[in-house]
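Dock NAP; give full complex structure.
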Amino acid sequence: MRCGRAWPTASDPCGGADARTPQRTDPMAQAIVKGCVRAKVLANPSGPGRFHSNPFNARSTADHVLAGVDLTGRRFVVTGCSSGIGFETMNSLAANGAHVVGLARSWPAAAEACLRVGPTCTAVACDLSDLDSVADAAGAIRALNAPLDAIIANAGTAYLPTLSTRYGVEMQFLVNHVGHFALVKQLCGMVRNGTGRIVLVSGATRAKPSPREGIMFDNLDGSRFYQPATFYRQSKLAVALCAKELARRLQGRGIAVNAVDPGATGGTQLVRHVRQPLLIRAVSRLFRKDAKRAAATQALLAASPRVAGISGELWADCRIAEGPALLGDVDLAKRLWEVSEGIVDAHTLPEKLRDAA
Ligand SMILES: NC(=O)c1ccc[n+]([C@@H]2O[C@H](COP(=O)([O-])OP(=O)(O)OC[C@H]3O[C@@H](n4cnc5c(N)ncnc54)[C@H](OP(=O)(O)O)[C@@H]3O)[C@@H](O)[C@H]2O)c1
């Protein structure tokens, strides 16, 4: 098997062989109310993150939310570090002393971004549309042989104009959800018990759910129909559902898992495939954040003590957000998890059997 370690099983979803701190078995300890939304808080009775007020909002930048937070000696993984929100996230974490492992589709792109940020960044190639590349990246990170404080699954692709598929699934679903699902599963055994964080970057959560059923299990390959925006939203709902399910699965290890919608952001490459009239583009720019602001919520969730222990939530503008009703569908999240596992296993298991022979 390419990643060189046991594939996680249902009872050990993240193959916690590298876990070093004792397991946390107590259930959710308390709920806090933020606006009209109840947030689940992992049991952390003596830790610093029992409850903290949060002064940040849509205007905060990643630098603001991390001001005064010393990340020396801490290690983060950021995917999609070569541009936009991912680059700004890596930049702010590193500015506070963190070691950041920056992943990009190609090694030169990752290396160039890491060089721009500074010597505490390590470049790793990871093409999320290629499960072998994902396994190689996970192997390279494990070879660094140091626990991870957080994984930020930020990379994304959007509005691909024509249908393309691999492993039997459409490309936005593959890159945004399945590739990250595989990466996180192969790395989460390295995430610190008790304090570790996993942040999955979702999006389009304020838009009307589309498709209506959330995930088109009968059309993951787009053969029934393909529409770029619908498939983008589907992939981002899958990311948020996956965060919910992973939060439930990692609750016992005290690892916080949250989803983030960075909100409409200007100056990034995400909408490179969208052709918009100049006027619409100019007007919409007025309502967009820049990437430094868009990076704030994921930086907060990955590294700030203020939100320690909060898990299983969708966040936007540095606050817990409500999100679509489908996010509360536990059966949908479970089914998605099983289907995603099936897609990844279908690719890796034959190889595993071959390696074992
Ligand atoms: N911008 C917004 O308005 C907005 C709104 C909501 C959510 N988001 C989410 O925020 C995240 C960051 O987006 P952004 O706005 O910063 O866009 P961006 O500038 O396009 O950054 C996306 C990053 O993902 C990488 N990526 C794309 N396909 C990949 C693949 N197959 N393998 C590995 N990396 C790949 C890109 O690398 P390449 O340059 O090599 O393609 C790039 O580094 C995305 O998940 C996006 O869906 C953005």
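Observed: The chain has ten helices and twelve strands.
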